[in-house]
Design goal:
Radius of gyration: 20 Å
Number of helices: 12
CATH topology of the largest domain: Butyryl-CoA Dehydrogenase, subunit A, domain 3
CATH architecture of the largest domain: Up-down Bundle
CATH class of the largest domain: Mainly Alpha
Number of domains: 2
Shape: elongated
Helix content: 55-70%
Length: about 260
């Protein structure tokens, strides 16, 4: 009886080759994640955790998975960095509570207004001045979980928003849009953001610019870019979750 091809485990010398040939991913991922983790987590901390993730990926990888090692390794490396952040306990309870307040305010306003709220409206709902609200956005941006890499479910292994707009094996963005309903929904929700929020998301996740580079392009401070990034991602997560549970996240309004 033929059960199909049998894939042998990756040999030790092959694991070493995989690690050495993908070492460049450590520095690349470190630069990409430096703005997604708390400011007091150093580049050395991130790189060390990413290296642990790379080694772990090489140990766990099997050709039968049907994915490129680079794709598999990147997820393991990101997970290792976020695990290290949690281990270091930089995700403070007070910041999580603040972030929850903002997300709840955005959700309540969108349900009532039928569109993503403006930041002035969110500030008013929270009974804060616009300056204080923007300062709060800057604070919660250091949680690291305000990112397209955050899972949409209450499981650390669940799908992320970025999984639905980024696939290293897909030949074109158009094919991704056609093949994923969630991707289409995410694209609609991105289109409903303010112009500056859309630009920040596009430049960061599609053009892969750093926040410093985005600040230079948009002629804004890095702090303001961080605020726009935080607010855009909280809006997106709120809208996507609502649409998945039968909410009115798809309603369109004039801007």
């Amino acid at each position: 009886m033929n059960f199909g091809p049998v894939y042998a485990p990756v040999r030790a010398d092959e694991k070493d080759r995989l690690i050495k040939s993908h070492l460049h991913m450590v520095s690349f991922l470190t630069e990409r994640m430096v703005s997604q983790v708390p400011a007091f987590m150093t580049r050395e901390d991130i790189a060390s955790a990413a290296m642990v993730g790379l080694v772990d990926a090489a140990n766990r990888f099997k050709p039968s998975m049907g994915v490129l090692f680079k794709t598999f390794a990147e997820k393991r490396m990101r997970g290792a960095v976020l695990d290290e952040v949690r281990r270091m306990d930089w995700f403070s309870r007070s910041l999580r509570q603040k972030q929850s307040r903002v997300c709840q305010a955005i959700e309540d306003l969108e349900r009532r207004l039928g569109r993503p709220p403006e930041e002035e409206e969110v500030a008013s709902s929270l009974e804060m001045t616009l300056d204080d609200y923007r300062q709060l956005l800057g604070e919660v941006s250091y949680l690291g979980c305000v990112s397209l890499h955050e899972t949409l479910e209450d499981s650390p292994d669940g799908p992320t928003m970025l999984d639905n707009i980024e696939d290293q094996d897909s030949p074109s963005a158009m094919e991704m849009l056609e093949n994923s309903e969630l991707t289409q929904e995410l694209a609609r929700q991105i289109d409903r953001l303010t112009e500056k929020e859309r630009l920040v998301v596009s430049l960061y996740y599609y053009e892969e610019l750093s926040q410093k580079e985005i600040a230079e392009v948009l002629e804004l401070s890095e702090g303001r870019v961080s605020q726009l990034h935080s607010q855009a991602l909280m809006k997106l997560k709120t809208s996507i979750k609502r649409s998945q549970t039968g909410g009115t996240g798809r309603s369109s309004t004039a801007r």
